[in-house]
Amino acid sequence: MKTLKKIFEDAMKNKYAIGQFNFSSLEQLQGIVMAGEKTNTPLICGTSSGESDFFGMEEAVACVKIMRERSGVPIFLNLDHGKNVEKIKKAVDLGYDMVHFDGSKMSLQESIEKAKEVVSYAKEKNVIVEGEISEIKGSSTFSDKAIEKSDLKDIEEVVDFIKESGIDCIALDVGSIHGVYRDNPEIKPERVSELLEKISCFVVLHGGSGILDEDVRKVISSGVVKVNINTELRFAWKKAIEGKMKKDPTEIVPYKILPLARDAVCKKVIEKITLFKGK
Ligand code: 13P
To answer: What is the rounded distance in angstroms from the CA atom of residue 172 to the CA atom of residue 155?
Structure first.
């Protein structure tokens, strides 16, 4: 199987992106993997702090391993927005393929120190490290409120962070925000090109839900190699279950309800994979 690093290099060269799709239940994960199988596309499954606490990190590693072996498609697992170094190390030990160290609430110096510690621990096991210093706000839910504007970090500061810490990937703030709001965010793809002119790094787009397709394509053309999606998958999952419960209020059998949620997630992931490939 190709390594995740090789896949990112290929994506960078050929201007496409790999999707990271978050999950916290088995049928969501089944839907994500099914989409990878149907399109024969590598993908990353993600668990945030809350998602990994609910699903279990060991369970996530075991399920992804079984599904990867069975499907034959390169499927990877990332610990999303890890803020605690001990938890990140645990994910590395358990077999996550990638870890995201989120130091966006720390000072630059503290963030560099902690990211270095994560990098030296993860490198021993060939685990990819993503870093973040310019906070990507919001949470992965729907809201009818106006979008919160982000304070974009100076690119030079981001460059210093990448250089000093030795991370492989950077969650760069380009104006996106986690979740879906009343309006679409104003995306600044030029920040990706500006960064890549100064330093070589794999750039990640967070808050991939609720962004106009054309803006997603623009950031990918500028060099983004990973796009994270969560809210739109959660919404597809909920809508499918709600629809079934409305249509058939007496149904109580999980294996008759949940396949609809799995299929709705799969459909949404295929839509995103097609967008990220640009074909
Ligand atoms: P969305 O919930 O906006 O899709 O963002 C997901 C994400 O960035 C996970 O890190």
So the answer is: 9
* Digit-coded pLDDT (tens) for 191-211: 999 999 999 999 999 999 999
230 in contact with ligand 1, CB cutoff 6 A: yes
- Phi, then psi, of 137 in degrees rounded to 5: -75, -175
Residue nearest to atom 5 of ligand 1 (CA): 207
The DSSP symbol for 149 reads P
Q: How much is the pTM?
A: 0.97
pLDDT, one tens digit per residue, over 89-116 is 999 999 999 999 999 999 999 999 999 9
213 is catalytic: no
Helix (H) or strand (E) holding 13: helix 4-14
Measured from the CB, is residue 228 less than 6 Å from ligand 1? yes
Q: In 127-230, which ranges are continuous DSSP H helix?
A: 155-165, 190-198, 213-221
Residue 150: pLDDT band with limits 50, 70, 90: confident
d(CA 182, CA 144) in angstroms, rounded, equals: 5
**Measured between alpha carbons, how far is 178 from 138 in angstroms, rounded to an integer?**
5
Cβ atoms < 10 Å from Cβ of 154:
9
Ligand 1 centroid distance, CA of 239 (Å) = 18
Q: How far apart are CA 189 and CA 175, in angstroms?
A: 9
**What pLDDT is attached to residue 264?**
98
CB 198, CB 155: distance < 8 Å: yes
d(CA 108, CA 261) in angstroms, rounded, equals 41
